[in-house]
Amino acid sequence: MSTQSSGSGDNRVDMIRRVLFESPQRPQSAPLEGDALQQHETIERAWKLHIMRERERRQRSLEKQFRSLHVAMTELEKTSDRLFKGASVKSRHITYPKQAKIPTDTPSTKVWDYSYKALSDAL
Amino acid sequence: MMSRRLFTTSTRSLQQQTPLKIKNSRIAASVILTRAPQITRDATPFEMAYFDYKEKQERAAASVFPQEFYFKKGTLAERRWKEQVEARNAAMNDPSLSLTDAVDQTRASEDADGAAAAAAPVVQADRITKADKENDIKKLDRALQQNLYLIVKQQNKWQFPQTDMQASEYLHEAAERHLKEACGPDMDVWFVGRQPITHYKESPSRKEDTEGLKVFFMKARIYAGQVKPSKDVSDFAWLTKKELVDYLPSEYYNSIKDSLSDL
Questions:
Q1: Residue A15 falls inside a structural domain
Q2: Which of residues 32-71 of B touch A (CB under 8 A)?
């Protein structure tokens, strides 16, 4: 970097050095006490309770889904051996779809592709 | 002496055509076709309040931001940044205003001089679509936060697309075949494995001499396209779990409700 004799050039280099090499200052915060501490702890406990309940609700929903599946397969086994065996076979050719996407905060501008056409299997 | 039969007694070649009946119960395959949620769910008021609280807590403990490094002195960008910093500092002591809202307020007020706004407009689609406002139950861009399930009107009753199984095919084959025939092939559908996720039973009654029915439901997901109803299907709808209660008979709904996720 060409060194200019002007002050502004030195300031810029100093600033870059500072940002690169010095650890930034953090405000010194005294630990919470008394009322403020109680408020903070109550808020944190309420949040933990909230996510615990969410987690348990999700877990219960999954358990119900699994139970339905299990009961259906038991019923199928009683009904027909052939169908049960056909359902239990795990195909090595089933792959997870690439089109599956996780939910985003806003939908895409073309919200849903209504104009999808089936691929003509011309082999 | 009655010979004990478990399957239809037709020969193998005829089994291609005959619907499957075991112990006086028809076996049917059905499809629960789901459109997954496209957007994240709305935050509850408690969640929003907690996020705002955390944001302020982190700002209070954050390290000093090197403003002179990122913004050149005297530029418009620096002036805008300083306004936002002032708004954030004012919002720190105001429990009803969040930092994000404070910054949004300054952005709204400065949009009057729209020079920079026009340079790079960020177009964000609405979370509530036209289909939501019109409550069009045939559309797939309604209720983007929830799962939508396909039901069809077959023989004048609402149910998931259902077909009697032929004696030669498996459950997943029957389900895929019927979905293509009844709802058209122009849908990007993926069947989740070969196992039925739930079943519905109507027991045969010897007194009334009615045959029973056993329906096994296969799970499938749709990623694009729309239903094209055929002659079997007089009507169709894409409904959330809550709305299904009004359309499906109660016994039928109770059999399937545990296998649908809560969203």
A1: no
A2: 36-40, 46-47, 50, 53, 60-64, 66, 68-69
Q: Is A45 a member of any domain?
A: yes
Q: Which residues pair with B150 in a beta bridge?
A: B238
Q: Does ipTM top 0.85?
A: no
Name every chain B residue with its beta carbon within 8 A of the beta carbon of A76: 171, 196, 199, 216
CATH of domain B15-40+131-259: 3.90.79.10
Q: Quote the CA–CA distance of B69 and B72 in Å, as a whole number.
A: 7
Which residues in B lie closer than 8 A to residue A16 (C-beta atoms)? 69
Residue extents of the structural domains in chain B: 15-40+131-259, 45-113
Nearest chain B CA: its distance from A68 CA (Å): 5
N-to-C CA span, chain B: 55
pTM of the predicted protein model: 0.85
- The residue that leads in pLDDT, B239 or A15, is B239
Establish if A60 belongs to a structural domain.
yes
User: Which residue on chain A is closest to B66 by alpha carbon?
Assistant: A19
Distances (CA, A) of A72 to A94, B186, B198, B200: 22, 30, 5, 9
Residue B190: helix, strand or coil by DSSP? strand
Model pLDDT for residues B124-146, shown as the tens digit of each residue: 899 999 999 999 999 999 999 99
- What does the alpha-carbon distance between residue A30 and residue B254 come to, in Å, rounded to a whole number? 57
Q: For residue B53, which residues of chain A lie inside 8 Å, CB to CB?
A: 43
Q: Which residues of A touch B40 (CB under 8 A)?
A: 103-105
**Tokens at B149, concatenated:** 């399930």
How many domains in chain A? 1
Cβ of A83 within 8 Å of Cβ of B171? The answer is yes
Are B38 and A103 inside 8 Å of each other by CB?
A: yes
CB B29 within 8 A of CB B182: no
**DSSP letter (8 states) at residue A8:** H
- Asked whether residue A11 is domain-assigned, the answer is no
